[in-house]
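Data deposition worksheet. Section B asks for the primary sequence of the deposited chain exactly as it was used as input, without tags or linkers unless they were present during the calculation. Section C holds the resulting structure in token form. Section D is free text for depositor observations; keep each observation to a single sentence. Incomplete worksheets are returned to the depositor.
Section A, Depositor: J.P.
Section B:
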Amino acid sequence: MADIPAVLDTVRSKRATVIANIGGGMLAMPYAAAHPERVASLVLVDCFARFVRAPDFPAGSPRTRVGANLRSAEQNTGRGVMIDAFAPSAASDERLRRAWARYERAAATPGSTKAIVRLIYESDVRDVLPSIRVPTLVIHRRDATGFGVTHGRYLAEHIPGAKYVEMPGRDNLIWAGNLEAIVAEIQGFVTGIRPAPEPRRILSTVLFTDIVGSTERAAALGDDRWNALLAEHNRLARRQLDRFGGTEIKVVGDGFLATFDGPAIAVRCAGAIRDEVRELGLEVRAGVHVGEIEVLPDDIAGLAVHLGARVSALAGPGEILVSSTVKDLVVGSGLEFEDRGSHVLKGVPGEWRLFAVAGGG
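Section C:
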């Protein structure tokens, strides 16, 4: 806790808003109670006053979980598995998992990680909650899998005058999931002015992929075998997205929607996905387009996205179709194309000339 005033003094801040996430609340809450002259307001995002359940604290987790969690902390430190529990919406992002694993290895040894986790489990700051007299905002995700929503409700009920906001989501780490909505709540609480959401529009390459004949294949294989095959398809596709620097936006039906910084690498990624999943006996179609998209918290939107979906829908088995915009932008890349003529795309104004990647992509 002594680090908090040290930082404030260094940056010459007399009073600051203190924002804490998960275990950081164990430090922020006692500090705010003891030093209200330095804390303008307190924001607690997915925090808790005590972890382990007690007769007078039914919001806590069963004590039987403690031993298993301590063993996991010691055995899995440096592997990034914390993402699974505290940021499940980001668990499929292998680059993030590797980055988090590096963070774990740089931050602590397996033994010290176990000691830190044990310290958190043994801590209990419930007694200080009534003494917090600074304006306090408590935010908690409704379906959080690590520290459940009952923790947030408990804090809001026991901190005098606290404002409680319950949000959808399964994550606990503050940067995962609906970050923009959390920032808007904090900004509104601290400044009194809640920002109107402004769409973020950027130029991007969109890639759609889809398994050809998936309905018939699923019916022939049965649910269990099809789900296993689909899971392997998804694993291989994500490996190629990671290899080519694509950003997975979401799974669409039996395929993916992803974005890339440039069209040539998106086309090559589509070819790599197609070639790799052929080893599973699957054929995919793909569509690529470049245009301005609207970036939403967990999705993308805009005419370019609709156009990319329509282009993909017209592709045949194993075919990668692109718009004329893509073809014009990849001149000099070594990619070659075959003209597929002009098309009227449903929901998209005008006619669009489409091209198929030649030579296997």
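Section D:
The radius of gyration is 25 Å.
DSSP finds 13 helices and twelve strands in the chain.
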